[in-house]
């Protein structure tokens, strides 16, 4: 497990103080959006190694938490970091749960990796009763920050796995086609959107 090397893992374990502060501020922004959201059954789709889950979804008030990711090594690390949670391996395009299983679903830094992100939002809606919290990179700020620090220079800062590139307003517009948006925030270099489904 020590040899596991995902981009997300490196991002969250970086020793760079600026990167650590940006991620901490991102998690604080997400926590603020979730603070008054009721519900006891939470799903984190694309949970990766469980960093956001640990920061945002500590068990409280009989809350049950499920993490899901496409990569088994990521799920194994997430399980170690969040032993109180349940986990599944699966794709956002075919979430392995019945309709309306969860009160609140998080999908953070996943939709930009999909060829058909609208299909991903449809699946998130299917398994969720009440609220969605979605986040993606805020473009072109995300790419610009990468480029300025010398990352992905041949791609003008764009991560190789990013197939979609939304500005904050473009992402809000995209999400509003399927969901009622309660509020949205930016936390450089990301955009976060909280949606209500019922």
Produce the secondary structure layout.
Elements: H1 7-12, H2 17-34, E1 41-45, H3 51-56, E2 64-69, H4 72-81, E3 86-89, E4 102-108, H5 117-127, E5 128-137, H6 141-148, H7 168-176, E6 180-187, E7 190-196
Parallel strand pairs: 1-2, 1-4, 2-3, 4-5
Antiparallel strand pairs: 5-7, 6-7
Description of the molecule:
The chain has 198 residues and is of the alpha/beta class. The chain has one domain (7-196): 3-Layer(aba) Sandwich (Rossmann fold). The protein has seven helices and seven strands. Strands 3-2-1-4-5-7-6 form a seven-stranded mixed beta sheet, sandwiched between helices. The longest helix is centred in the N-terminal third of the chain and has 18 residues, at 17-34. It is globular, with a radius of gyration of 16 Å. It starts with 6 loop residues before the first helix and ends with a strand. The relative contact order is 0.15. The model has no long low-confidence stretch (mean pLDDT 91).
Q: What distinguishing features does this structure have?
A:
alpha/beta, Rossmann fold, seven-stranded mixed beta sheet, 7 strands, 34% helix
What can be said about this structure in brief?
The protein is 34% helix and 24% strand. It is α/β, with parallel strands linked by helices and 198 residues long. It has one domain: 3-Layer(aba) Sandwich (Rossmann fold).
């Amino acid at each position: 497990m020590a040899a596991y090397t995902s981009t997300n893992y490196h991002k969250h374990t970086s020793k760079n103080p600026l990167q650590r502060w940006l991620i901490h501020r991102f998690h604080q922004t997400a926590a603020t959006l979730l603070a008054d959201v009721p519900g006891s059954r939470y799903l984190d789709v694309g949970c990766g190694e469980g960093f956001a889950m640990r920061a945002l979804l500590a068990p409280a008030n009989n809350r049950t938490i499920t993490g899901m990711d496409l990569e088994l090594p990521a799920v194994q690390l997430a399980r170690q970091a969040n032993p109180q949670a349940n986990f599944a391996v699966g794709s956002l395009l075919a979430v392995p749960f019945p309709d309306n299983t969860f009160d609140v679903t998080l999908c953070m830094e996943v939709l930009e990796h999909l060829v058909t992100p609208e299909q991903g939002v449809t699946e998130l809606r299917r398994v969720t009763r009440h609220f969605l919290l979605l986040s993606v990179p805020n473009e072109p700020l995300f790419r610009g920050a990468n480029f300025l620090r010398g990352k992905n220079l041949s791609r003008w800062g764009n991560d190789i796995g990013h197939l979609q590139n939304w500005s904050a307003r473009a992402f809000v517009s995209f999400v509003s086609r399927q969901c009622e948006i309660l509020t949205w925030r930016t936390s450089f270099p990301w955009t976060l959107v909280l949606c209500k489904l019922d």
